[in-house]
Amino acid sequence: xLVFVAFLFFLGVGFDLIFVGGGVMPVPIGSMLAxxxxxxxxxxxxxxxxxxxxxxxxAIPIDQAALPAPEDAKLKYRQLEDVxxxxxxxxxxxxxxxxxxxxxxxxxxxxxxxxxxxSIAVTQGLLDTLNRDELQGVVAHELSxxxxxxxxxxxxxxxMVGAAALLSDWTSRGLLFGGGGSSRSRNREQGGGLFGxxxxxxxxxxxxxxxxxGQALAMxxxxxxxxxxxxxxxxxxxxxxxxxxxxxxxxEAVDPTVSIKQGTANLCIADPLGRQIGLREGKWANLFASHxxxxxxxxxxxxxxxxx
Amino acid sequence: MAGVVLIAVLVVLVVxxxxxxxxxxxxxxxxxxxxxxxxxxxKRRHDLIPNLVSTVRGAMEFERDTLTQVxxxxxxxxxxxxxxxxxxxxxxxxxxxxxxxxxxENYPALKANDNVKMLQEELTSTENKVGFARQxxxxxxxxxxxxxxxxxxxxxxxxxxxxxxxxxxxxxxxERQVPAVDLSMRKG
Lengths: 308, 188
Known about the structure:
Distance between the termini of chain A: 31 Å
Structural class of chain B: mainly alpha
Number of strands of chain B: 0
Oligomer: heterodimer
Radius of gyration of chain B: 24 Å
């Protein structure tokens, strides 16, 4: 998180020095503007995001999903409702709204800006594959995202990624149309020296790669929050093995979750797109994964079970 | 100069004491709320049991004893007074229910009945909710106690009138035991 702020600061200061003329204004106009724009888009997603996400994944409120179901299927829905209520009692949170996503792939996500406006959605596939204890583990994981305010955190980060991308965009346009050329030479006269030149080169590289670096940093934060949600989920159920076996089952199902879009990936129990990333382990492949490799998550949960 | 330092130290102390006090009050209210949550879940359990018993009665003609035990344990639990008494009687009720479920396993007609399955899920969930409500209560009470007893707040917590909250424990010896189920009942 701090790295992120530092990175954005570096981009912003450089941008101001070159395009706005650093000596004239002490206020970082360019970066403020970028952050402002990034903030506006993130702000709207903060308030309307849960509805948009639920709408785009075709989620149905659980009471509507359960109504036309046959008797034996109703039991599963009832179980889900009960499990969610149990977990909200264990977490001391108001019970979230529950949605069913008609998708065969097992997955689940949480959304909503704070615990009072939270929703949890699970796919039909998840209900069909998991037993009661495993379902409880998954719900505890999702509710932990809600309790740890991860939705808020990821919104702030989305704003910063947006700002970095904007800065990068403006810079590459500026360089392309030569708008920055004259001011850049002026800057070199002011600062001068080899050091300034090296810094300038680093900055240009950084700014051009900004969208990619920003994304990688955001995903790093996201992966950490996944581990945290796994751990606090296990703290709620006092049953880490159930979540571990749920994760193993979810991992076995290879279809991508088509109805969950990438924007929601941060808050899912498992990455809806990238199962293949889990296969190719190694630093490089994991750099852009929103979730840590399944094997490592399961290992961490097993370790918790042994420590009990 | 010394006077200024003294006043500054005093101001810091007062601000800190206010923060401590508010923090403890917040925790104490959560503890109270946690305690009430347990009551809410227990009440729900009491309301569910007559339903369950009347649903299974027809199929379990031969288990009158087990059913009566459940109803009696429920009646005692409803009239319990005070936390310790309640804990004891609720424990007995849990045991009676455990026996009922164990015995019900022997009735295929019951196991296949959707109504009974639904009721059983309800009751399992209520048991879990009671358990999680206690877990939450214990978690929050421990947090409350820890923030009272750690240095330096321990010097002021008692002065501000805070007492450590009691943790929820199993009281009677009977509750620690795993319910014994007599399997010979199958033939009866």
